[in-house]
Design brief:
By secondary structure, the protein is of the alpha+beta class. It folds into 2 domains: 149 residues, D-Amino Acid Oxidase, Chain A, domain 2; 92 residues, FAD/NAD(P)-binding domain, CATH 3.50.50.60. It is built from 7 helices and 17 strands. A hairpin with a 3-residue loop joins strand 11 and strand 12. Pfam families: DAO (PF01266).
């Protein structure tokens, strides 16, 4: 449902469809798997050939044997507005946000957990840690060394020369394309398509700056689009926190059950946050959840518990 939109009276989801493009010479198994999943879930879709992709969704210009799945129920989440909407409801429910406040230490305890920041300290019966790319640094003093890597991803916005192409008004969808690339219509910046790679170089969280690696997304733009600049007009930064199997970690700390951890979302966490948030809250409140969490447990990794804490 779209309950959050109704509660906040904001448009948070634009239903402009989702297009997944596959190279039939290399990705036919992935195409068939996607169709099977959609069929199993009774999600309506259409399959397009190369000519149909190029005609319906300019500035795409594929040559060769390609297929695409178009899901009319898909679309684009307005990420900043979604975050603001959640924060608004959180504050209306009595929650307090502490922006620009750095966590310096977490002190576990059987009855209360203490969080020390650069401004104050807080005590609670339970604690949920969802600290993104900084989670490993917070957990190592708590005897937990999760096998997480940090990837620097670059969000690139590319100028389209033909007015109207790549826009919502032209019916242009969100998309996933070869080379592990994805993107959205021209929404955030007028006249610019958002086209990005799903992943990037591994970085140290203390030294995260890396020059952009745009080889894959540049291949897409130069080989499979027309009338689009070959260099991005705007480049923004994003950090992925990646687990070895690229699956989530949603679990209690193995030594301190009143500390709950949500991490390892591997670049796909935002869209799942309403569900993962409910799960983490249930764990913190010792309530049952209707979901099978076995695949998200910390115990699937070996040698993560360190009896000597590291700083």
């Amino acid at each position: 449902g779209r309950d959050l939109e109704r509660q906040t009276n904001e448009t948070l989801f634009i239903q402009n469809g989702m297009l997944e493009v596959y190279d039939n010479t290399t990705d036919s198994e992935k195409l068939n798997l996607s169709k099977k999943v959609l069929n199993d879930l009774n999600v309506p879709y259409k399959v397009l050939n190369t000519e149909e992709i190029n005609r319906k969704y300019k500035p795409f210009h594929f040559e060769g044997d390609y297929s695409a799945i178009f899901e009319s129920l898909g679309g684009t989440l307005m990420a900043n507005k979604c975050l603001q909407a959640f924060q608004t409801l959180y504050k209306e429910a009595g929650g307090v946000l502490h922006d620009n406040e750095q966590v310096k230490q977490i002190i576990p305890g059987n009855d209360l957990v203490t969080v020390v920041t650069n401004k104050s300290q807080f005590k609670a019966k339970s604690l949920v840690i969802t600290a993104g790319s900084f989670v490993a640094k917070l957990l190592k003093p708590l005897h937990l060394d999760l096998p997480l890597t940090i990837q620097r991803n670059h969000l690139c916005f590319w100028r389209v020369h033909n007015d109207g192409e790549g826009t919502l008004e032209a019916g242009f969808p969100s998309f996933k394309t070869p080379y592990l690339t994805y993107g959205t219509a021209s929404i955030e910046y007028p006249g610019l398509l958002k086209i990005c790679s799903h992943g990037g170089p591994t970085v140290d969280i203390d030294y995260p700056d890396q020059p952009p690696n745009m080889d894959d997304v540049t291949k897409l733009v130069t080989n499979h689009m027309k009338n689009v600049d070959h260099k991005p007009a705007i480049v923004e930064n994003c950090l992925y926190t990646v687990s070895p199997d690229r699956d989530f970690i949603l679990d209690r700390h193995p030594m301190y059950p009143n500390i709950v951890i949500g991490t390892g979302f591997s670049g796909t966490g935002f869209k799942m946050s309403p569900i993962t948030g409910q799960i983490l809250a249930s764990l913190a409140l010792n309530k049952n959840t209707k979901y099978d969490l076995s695949r998200f447990k910390i115990s699937r990794f070996e040698n993560v518990l360190k009896m000597k804490a590291s700083l």
